């Protein structure tokens, strides 16, 4: 029996008006959501990850955060220097 770890990642992309309209048209035709259409297009373009590749990636990355001195939130904030200030300007 195989056990798969499923990770979901949320991302934001910017589309041209034409790309967005095309996705909306396809969604209306197929009944599929925009996210599902994008996922299927990625699979068609880049292929799927095989179970062996998935296990290899998990083994290669296991323990990479082990000796981290900061938490995930602090790490992301260090990459986005000034984001807090820019968000405060919107308030």
Specify the biggest β-sheet.
Answer: none
User: Please, what is the oligomeric state?
Assistant: single chain
Q: Kindly, what is the distance between the CA atoms of the first and last residues, rounded to a whole number of angstroms?
A: 52 Å
- Total number of beta strands: 0
Percentage of residues assigned to helices: 55-70%
SSE run: HHHHH
Rg over CA atoms, rounded to whole Å, is 19 Å
Q: What is the overall number of helices?
A: 5
Poorly predicted tracts of residues: none
Overall 3D shape: flat
Average per-residue pLDDT, rounded, comes to: 83
> What percentage of the residues does DSSP assign to strands (E)?
under 5%
Please identify the structural class as seen in this structure: mainly alpha
Q: Care to describe what's here?
A:
The protein has 91 residues and is mainly alpha-helical. It has a domain at 14-63. It contains five helices and no strands. The longest helix is centred in the first third of the chain and has 14 residues, at 17-30. The chain is flat and about 50 Å long.
In brief:
The protein is mainly alpha-helical and 91 residues long. The chain is built from five helices and no strands. 59% of the residues lie in helices and 0% in strands.
Task: Reconstruct the topology from this structure.
Layout (H helix, E strand, L loop, with lengths): L16 H14 L3 H13 L4 H11 L10 H8 L3 H8 L1
């Amino acid at each position: 029996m195989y056990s798969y770890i499923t990770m979901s990642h949320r991302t934001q992309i910017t589309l041209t008006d034409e790309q967005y309209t095309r996705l909306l048209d396809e969604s209306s035709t197929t009944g599929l959501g925009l996210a599902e259409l994008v996922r299927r297009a990625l699979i068609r373009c880049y292929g799927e990850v095989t179970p062996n590749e998935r296990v290899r990636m998990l083994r290669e990355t296991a323990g990479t955060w082990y000796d981290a001195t900061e938490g995930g939130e602090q790490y992301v904030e260090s990459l986005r220097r000034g984001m807090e200030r820019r968000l405060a300007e919107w308030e």
